[in-house]
Specification:
Number of helices: 7
Strand order of the largest sheet: 3-2-1-4-5
Radius of gyration: 28 Å
Mean pLDDT: 85
Structural class: alpha/beta
Largest sheet: 5 strands, mixed
CATH class: Alpha Beta
CATH topology: Pyruvate Kinase, Chain: A, domain 1
Length: 309
Amino acid sequence: MGSLKELRGRISGVKSTRKITNAMKMVAASKLRRAQTQALAARPYAETMRGMMTELAQAMQGDDTSSLPRLFGGTGKDDTHLLVIMTSDRGLVGGFNSNLLRLARARIKELQAQGKTVKILAVGRKGADFFAREMPDAVVDSFHSDGGKDGVSFDQARKIARRIIDMVEKGEVDNVSLFASRFINAMTQLPEEHGLVPLPRTAPGAGNDNEAQADGQAKAGKGDGARYVFEPDETELLTQLLPRNVEVQIYSALLESAAGEQGARMTAMDNSSRNASKFIDSLSLTYNRTRQANITRELIEIISGAEAV
């Protein structure tokens, strides 16, 4: 049990910390509203484009795609995997970064166990710092994820996408996967993995929708699903669509990650403020008990001295 002066100092320190965490919670809440609006507005476009590209890949399965860009079918090999991992630039976000890094590390171990070469493109300082310590030779590049006061910009997503596209077209990597947190609400952010290159042949959640697939095939009148008529030809069209798809998926992931970061920070700071209040109550109780004990001891000493006289 410390002295009264020490207890007063600790109570004052915890109160100062609570002021900071409360202020950070309010700042995160104000930023969350804007980030959530942007993420939810971009999500339908990104999901629709991902679904369209998946259907396109299914429709062209078995066709000669050698003339198409490598973004469509990759290099044809499965030796080198590029993992694009999105974390936050700043901390104090609870388990937001650690949950995503845990998913990415599990995937890395799985690929390494299969004898694959893993390369990492880190988006966000926290992920970049982590892999700079754990796997420095695997990191090929890093980008900041913080969009600044104006939020995430499409130019930022385009820079990241251009780096990915350049590596794929040069044949430096065979497969590209994106690891990012999907925003659910302020308390929940779901780490997910999405395939970027080659184009996935199965849409997320489509595997269980057999009735819808059968109905679509019946309407198309063909057992192999819908076919596409290209105007202009598929090579020219996909040369423009494929890079755009990568940019859109990166942009959407950046928005989802930004919203998730603010939600995680708001929740973490709220929990910290609550814990600080509980700690202040506990310290105040200890302070009052110590003060009462000191008063009682002084009274006993005065009474004892008076009786001795």
